[in-house]
Amino acid sequence: MKAFCFNIKADMGFFKKNDSNARVFTTYNFIHKPAVLGIFGAILGYSGYDRDRKNNGIEYYEKLKNFKIAIKPLYKKPLKKTVVVFNNSSGLASEETGGVLQAKEQVIVESLGYTIFVPFFETFSEAEKKIYEKLEYMVKNKYAEYPIYFGKNEFFAYFENYRSLNVEELERKEAVVDSLVKMKDVDFFGKTDEEEFDLFEEHKEEQKITLIEELPYELDENYMYVKDLFIFTDKELKIKNNEGFWRTIDDEIIYVF
């Protein structure tokens, strides 16, 4: 199957959790699919959330929601974070006296990057095929209609290392998966269902690490996050169902969702 991939990077990031408390807005450890689709929308020049509420739709999501991707983090450990305090006086975010809200955000303060894989599906509509071709052309030529960033426009991002490639369905049932993968689709060797995993499970002797996090993977009819547990590990996994698992010509194993 035809696909392309590219790297996207930034020096800092903030992928806001929508279930954070009012005191400190926290960040996910990884970029998630709705955020990646938002970056695609910025590259293509589609509109996002309508702050004036003239309509209830989100253009980029409606056009791109049938696209499937794989996300491969370019780091193997939790990144450094710090809490930043700032005054928000935009008028859109505060009804405080004086129109100023003091906000606290947990920000990733370490360079971060991802390889994004975008496969082409024959089930795409004609409109989606044209969107795919335009997106690939623009990524290949390093051009975006709107600036792209990691969560906030202060955290400017850039993309590079475009590659055109073919992927094929993975046939084997055991593999080290190079991308994020939903936990429900894999099992660990040597673990029973009753055994639990820490959020960050580190194996110093084997120099392996496992990161588990609940991440959004789509939006519902009200454009709210739909989430599931994802895992990123360099340990070999048992694959329950090969649907969604693909192998590149470089023998990278990716999970497309």
TrEMBL record:
<dbReference type="InterPro" id="IPR021124">
    <property type="entry name" value="CRISPR-assoc_prot_Cas5"/>
</dbReference>
<dbReference type="Pfam" id="PF09704">
    <property type="entry name" value="Cas_Cas5d"/>
</dbReference>
<dbReference type="InterPro" id="IPR013422">
    <property type="entry name" value="CRISPR-assoc_prot_Cas5_N"/>
</dbReference>
<protein>
    <submittedName>
        <fullName>Cas crispr-associated protein Cas5</fullName>
    </submittedName>
</protein>
<keyword id="KW-0051">Antiviral defense</keyword>
<dbReference type="GO" id="GO:0043571">
    <property type="term" value="P:maintenance of CRISPR repeat elements"/>
</dbReference>
<dbReference type="GO" id="GO:0051607">
    <property type="term" value="P:defense response to virus"/>
</dbReference>
